[in-house]
Fold this sequence. Notes:
The protein is an alpha/beta fold. It is 44% helix and 20% strand. Among the domains are: 2-93 and 259-264, Nucleotidyltransferase, domain 5; 128-206, Orthogonal Bundle (Transcription Termination Factor Rho, Rna-binding Domain, Chain A, Domain 1).
Amino acid sequence: MKLIVDCGATKAEWLLSSGKNLRTAGFNLQQTPPEQLEAVLREASSGLGPGVREVYFYAAGLVGDVPIDWDKWFPGARVECSSDMLGAARAVCGTQQGLAAIIGTGANTCQYNGSAIVHKVNCGGFILGDEGSAAVLGKLFLADYFRGLVPPDVATAFEAHFPADYPTLVRNVYATPGPARYLGGFAPFLMQHYAASEYVRGLVDGNFRRFFERVLSLYPSLPLGVVGGFGHACEAILRRLGAEYGVRFSRFLRSPMEGLAVYHF
């Protein structure tokens, strides 16, 4: 049997070619303590059972050696470890050339030739880049909120849903281990107000326009596939704005697993 693993910092999805799937806590290969990593692998190995002969492992921030003794958990299996960006490209492009974008809490892109990534614009993270992402949208909104630039109706609704005093907001951005995740958590609230608020529409559209102008414009004109919960939820907006920039979209996937199953199985 073949096994695909799509691993993020908060959750990991495991899918067998038999159709059996499993979700566990995620992990960061560079930061997760060994005992915590071992607990997740033990859960996955026991939950999936024996018979795995090929493992295709995709994870964000894959750098250097992968600190996993795969033979301990899936004895005799051949293992291929790749970045989540290659996983996204395989999911939306398959064996065809094209562009791939991950648009979720963060944002990342690449040009794919049908088998490998051949060009990549550095994303920079939510402080230096990540245009189009949920975290950047949250950052832009919070900066406006601090300065009293958010319209009263949206500000009042925000205060009804979130602890909105200045010290709490600043502490959550600068003194917690997951500031991007925290900022991205404002995106669902903002999208609820997209239709009714001109201010929110301008904020969301401006974030995506910067994605087209500052990132996508640096690639050749090829079909673009999008992976990620935020991008999937904003498909109609991205298609409308993208048309102004001549962007041709190939497909939108909430998770890469659907496309990866077709690619590998």
